[in-house]
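Shipment paperwork, digital attachment
Item: protein structure file
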Amino acid sequence: MINQPLIAFGIQQLRARCGHYGDPYGGKPLHWMINDKQKKKSRAAVCPKKPPADMQRAGRTSCDEYPFASTYEGGTHLPAKQRTITWVGKRENDSQGATITNWRRAWHVMDHDPFFVIV
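Attachment content:
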């Protein structure tokens, strides 16, 4: 997530206040989930349909959730203090999606595979 500065900052802020899932430095791994229906439910559970007015004015209208909706820890599966959302521009969120897709393909990440997130 190094190339997505707002997303990386959101994850760093979560980790600073005790969100340790996916942290390679002493945290627990996330686990990939291949279930599009559950992924949509997880995202909908934590991402409001509309960004706050200040985020709209800043052009940050895309909700990025962490842990990712595409993990078994995503959505509301963890307590609120272990998850976060960050409002980002669509371009940054799309870039993150491409980064994750390329990583998954290159490493052949399968359902339930554990992994960590470097920010």
